[in-house]
Specification:
214 residues; 10 strands; alpha/beta; 36% helix
Length: 214
Amino acid sequence: MNVTVFGATGAIGQLTVAELLNRGHRVTAYARNPQKVPESWADDNVRVVIGEMSDAEAIDSAVVGADAVVSTLGPSMDRKVVGTPLVPGIGNILASMKDHGVRRFVGHATPSILDAQESPTAVTRLTSFLARTFLPRAYEEMTGMSGQIKASGLDWTIIRFIRPTDKPKQPRVRIGFFGTDRLGFPVSRADIAAVTAAQVEDDRYVGRAPAISN
């Protein structure tokens, strides 16, 4: 499959690109900063598109020809950052997907965003409270992104997680929903990438927002 990855040069994004390549997919990596593009991608035949999230034309050139789109984009935790640029950016991605008939979208969020079939739990209430209280701009951006994805009418899946770590893949990865499944807080970025890449070919969670942890 041809898979376009947004946020490709981030910590989780690079791992996701590697997972997709290992699974035999062809990857188009969308990046803002060409200096962050790994040299190894040239050897892996990764197609790179450079552009901002506001650049609808560049986004369109990255989406055309794709069978699926993956977004590892997430709000900046820097309190000095202003605005919510990822909200219109996600809008540009979704619009381009619809224009080119690309149905499959996989993105990321936190449990402050509920799955449609979940009821609030202590964990989801806590993460939502902390985000609204201490990172209101990031919370607004996350909810704005997720709202558009859920309303897109596409075959979307949102992978949610709380505390990413730099550990290698762990022996156990839990995936499920709060209130019905046993989930924890930490999860390795390597496992996030592996679960994200797997969703490209798996329709089990289409229209759902499963949470993962180790």
